[in-house]
Every structure is written in C-alpha cells, then in structure tokens.
Automatic annotation (TrEMBL):
HAMAP family: Guanylate_kinase. The gene is gmk. It is an enzyme of class 2 (transferase). It catalyses: GMP + ATP = GDP + ADP. Keywords: ATP-binding, Cytoplasm, Kinase, Nucleotide-binding, Transferase. Its EC number is 2.7.4.8. This is Guanylate kinase. It is found in: Cytoplasm. Essential for recycling GMP and indirectly, cGMP.
Length: 198
C-alpha cells in the first residue's frame, strides 16, 4: 500500500459562519493539524509565538515574501498575515492533513500555487450562512461590537458570500453539531479517494 500525501483542507466563509470553530475543533480532535499563520501584529495577552502565530517584524515578513517562503499573504488593517509554505508542505509530505482557516483572497492565492503537492492535496470548502438574516443574528449575537462594526462586517460578509461558486464544496450552516458532522465526514471521504493513494 502506497503512502498517502496529507490533505490541505482549505476553509473559507464570512465572519459569523462558524468556520474558525469548525477548524479548531477538527484540530483539537487531532483529525488535522492547524496551519499556524505568521503576522506582524504584536502578540495579545496569552498568545505564544509558534503556537498561536509566528510573530515577525515587518522586515522579516517582507523578506519571506521576497524569498517565496509564503504560500499566501495579505495586509489587513495595517498588519501583514501569511502562511509559511514549509509549515504546510512538511506536514503534507509526512501524510498529515492540514486545515487552513483563510479568507477568499488568501484561498485564491493558494489555488494559484504551482507547487505539485499543494495542487494534489487541495480540498477547498466554503461555509455558508443559510441566509442574510441568520448571518446578522450571529454577528449581533456576540454582543461585543458596535453597530458600525456590525454593519461593516455584514457588508464584507455578503461580499465574501459571492465567492462560494469558486470552491469545490459548500456547507450551508445549520447547528454547530450538524455542521461539524458534515465537515468531518467530508475530510474522511477525501481520505478514501483513490487518487490520494497513488
């Protein structure tokens, strides 16, 4: 029996879709390894370098862009975020499944990667709120954001939802438990695909 390359489980969805919760649960159950991102923002209280993020200076981050060490990267609110290619490739080559919680712009960059292992391993999924009303309910239900922030997130989320046809799979969100059953079943189904073992 041939060794299997890991699956790159790339997950997108708007704020309030529940994608981060799904990815973290999959990782916590040791079903897949969470891809740790790099960032130039300062650590928040309790965050650890190499566990929550790889914290880099702006020159360090820009050097990694220049040397092609990042699978994807973006600037968000004045800070840089990205994923190290080595962080993903080393795990995939060892047969470990990797889960990435990533926005639609980052997902597009990963799809454009010419690396054969990335192309062979990629499974992209969009987590979709059932409707705009439910999305607004989830965004306001947090109770931590101002109305202005909620409206901005709502507009951004509706824009992101336009991108779902670019993905191979879509999960229309229901309850947390239902979503996770589908999410995990899809990964298990991909593990059985014949082409993964060639």
């Amino acid at each position: 029996m041939s060794a299997r390359t890991g699956i790159l489980y790339l997950v997108s969805g708007p704020s309030g879709s529940g994608k981060t919760t799904l990815c973290r649960r999959l990782s916590n159950e040791d079903e897949a390894s969470y891809a740790i991102s790099c960032t130039t923002r300062k650590p928040r209280p309790g965050e650890e370098n190499g566990k929550d993020y790889f914290f880099l200076s702006i020159p360090e981050f820009q050097n990694k862009i220049a040397t092609g060490e990042l699978l994807e990267h973006a600037e968000v609110h004045g800070n840089f975020y990205g994923t190290l290619l080595s962080e993903v490739l080393n795990k995939l080559e060892a047969g470990v499944d990797v889960v990435m919680d990533i926005d639609v712009q980052g997902a597009a960059l990963v799809r454009e990667s010419k690396h054969p292992i990335i192309q062979h391993s990629l499974v992209d999924i969009f987590i979709m709120p059932p409707n705009a009303e439910e999305l607004r309910k989830r965004l306001t239900g947090r109770g931590t954001d101002s109305q202005e922030i909620i409206e901005t997130r709502m507009r951004n989320s509706l824009d992101e939802m336009e991108h779902w046809p670019k993905y191979s799979f879509r999960i229309v969100s229901g309850s947390h438990e239902e979503d996770y059953i589908f999410f995990k079943a899809l990964l298990h189904g991909e593990r059985l695909r014949i082409s993964r073992h060639i």
